[in-house]
Amino acid sequence: MKRAIPLHEAVELIPDGAICHVGGFMGVGSPHRLLSALAQAGRHDLTIVANDTAMPGRGIGKLISAGCVRRVIVSHIGLNPETQQKMIAGEIDVELVPQGTLVERIRAAGVGLGGVLTATGVGTRVADGKPTVEVDGRTFLLERPIHADFALLGAHRCDYVGNLDYTLTAHNFNPIMALAATTVIAEPEEIVPVGVIPPDAVKTPGALVDHVIGRMD
Amino acid sequence: MEAKELIARRVAREIAPGSLVNLGIGLPSMVANYLPAELGVFFQAENGVVGLGARPPEGMEDPNLTDAGGGFVSAVPGAASIDSAMSFGLIRGGHLDLTVLGGLQVDAAGHLANWMVPGRMVPGMGGAMDLVSGAKKVIVAMLHTQKGRPKIVPECTLPLTSTRRIDLVVTEMAVIEPTEAGLVLRETAPGIGVDDVRAATAAALIVDGAVPQMELGQPAPV
């Protein structure tokens, strides 16, 4: 069984320079309390792996505005002009990865695969410097796994085993990132008694979750 | 008729009954407005929903139910919510019948560039590269020119989204089909002649006989 920890304890777990998978899509499904607290704590030199950097004032956007981030590995920064400005100013390194490739690179790290072969990006800038592999006459790029020190997840419900479920479009990268980090921290909207989340509804088994952020601080 | 509405109406006529469709953000998302519900089309959004519905009335939005542009949407009866691995499994795995995307450039080989302008605009590719690589059919819906400059060019000068030849380009002036032989002018918009299209297009166009006018009404009942 897991004991929920206060928000500030979760923040203390994450040092400067950490590599963090962060769930969410334009902020939907992100661990918002944790991201706000990290920005307030003034963490720096973080590497953020996520679908996008949301927008200024929301989710990962708060980390970008607060100068917490040195590097991002993302599919899209179009809705966050601050990320683009900091990229042009040389303050943030941006690696752009096709969205489907990004999720599979994270999944590969989490499920013990040495990489992913995908046709996405063949013949484009994305292929620069990457090996190609021929399989049955088709050309694929070899894309490498992305493992992180931490996975910071936004979930719908969590029980005291650590089982998580998600709602609607707030799943996105969360269930995949839960597999691919040394330490997994979940921020659920609700904590419920064991048994309330039926086995069929569990998307992230509690065995993957190291810490659960409590409801109150 | 406003140019974007004309494009959206024409693209809507390409959508087959019962198909699974992904619409890009911006102009392509307008296509859903011109599609009769009885067509039984399911819209997929890459952030994780199959069965995307219209924006709910104000006060009835769910903060955890948005489209890939972050706008509030609803889910139709029969919808499924999925994670990003399943979402891109559908896209890359050839399970998506059609995607409609915006474009910065399309060239004579049918290649699309739509994810960056080096040094000026770097939004990132998001899901576009996977969509173009994996969807069964790719339609580019875009204005014919930008600030008077042709967007249909002999060879893309902007970074490519994919080396896959897209299936159809729909603009406010014309419907153009990229083929092995080159770009074939299939239709022109009402009031637009073949010479008008040629004047606004930097790539060579193949014209085979009389070019019909674009049909813009609702799709034929099924």
Helical content class of chain B: 10-25%
Please outline the major beta sheet of chain B: 10 strands, mixed
Query: What distance separates the N and C termini of chain A?
Result: 20 Å
Give Rg of chain B in angstroms: 17 Å
Determine the N-to-C terminus distance of chain B. 26 Å
Structural class of chain A comes to: alpha/beta
In DSSP terms (H or I, runs of 4 or more residues), the helix count of chain B works out at 4
Cα-atom radius of gyration of chain A: 17 Å
Give me the oligomer status: heterodimer
Strand percentage of chain A lies at: 25-35%
Compile the SSE list and pairings:
The complex is a heterodimer of chains A (217) and B (222).
Chain A: H1 7-13, E1 19-22, H2 32-41, E2 46-49, H3 60-65, E3 69-74, H4 81-88, E4 93-96, H5 99-111, E5 116-118, E6 132-135, E7 138-143, E8 148-159, E9 164-165, H6 174-177, E10 181-192, E11 211-212
Helix pairs in contact in A: 1-2
Chain B: H1 3-12, E1 20-23, E2 42-45, E3 49-53, E4 74-81, H2 84-92, E5 98-101, E6 105-107, E7 112-113, H3 128-134, E8 138-141, E9 145-146, E10 149-150, E11 152-153, E12 168-170, E13 174-179, E14 182-188, H4 194-199, E15 205-206
Parallel strand pairs in B: 1-2, 1-5, 5-8, 6-11, 8-12, 14-15
Antiparallel strand pairs in B: 2-3, 3-4, 6-7, 9-10, 12-13, 13-14
Please describe what this structure looks like.
The complex is a heterodimer of chains A (217) and B (222). Chain A is of the alpha/beta class. Chain A has one domain: Glutaconate Coenzyme A-transferase, CATH 3.40.1080. Chain A has helices at residues 7-13, 32-41, 60-65, 81-88, 99-111, 174-177, and strands at 19-22, 46-49, 69-74, 93-96, 116-118, 132-135, 138-143, 148-159, 164-165, 181-192, 211-212. In chain A, strands 1, 2, 3, 4, 8, 9, 10 and 11 form an eight-stranded mixed β-sheet that branches. Chain A has a three-stranded antiparallel β-sheet with strand order 5-7-6. The two termini of chain A are 20 Å apart. The mean pLDDT of chain A is 97. With 222 residues, chain B is α/β, with parallel strands linked by helices. Chain B has a single domain (3-206), classed as Glutaconate Coenzyme A-transferase (3-Layer(aba) Sandwich). Chain B has helices spanning 3-12, 84-92, 128-134, 194-199; strands spanning 20-23, 42-45, 49-53, 74-81, 98-101, 105-107, 112-113, 138-141, 145-146, 149-150, 152-153, 168-170, 174-179, 182-188, 205-206. In chain B, strands 4-3-2-1-5-8-12-13-14-15 form a ten-stranded mixed β-sheet. Chain B has a three-stranded mixed β-sheet with strand order 7-6-11, with no helix packed on it. Chain B is globular and about 50 Å long. In chain B, 45% of the residues are buried.
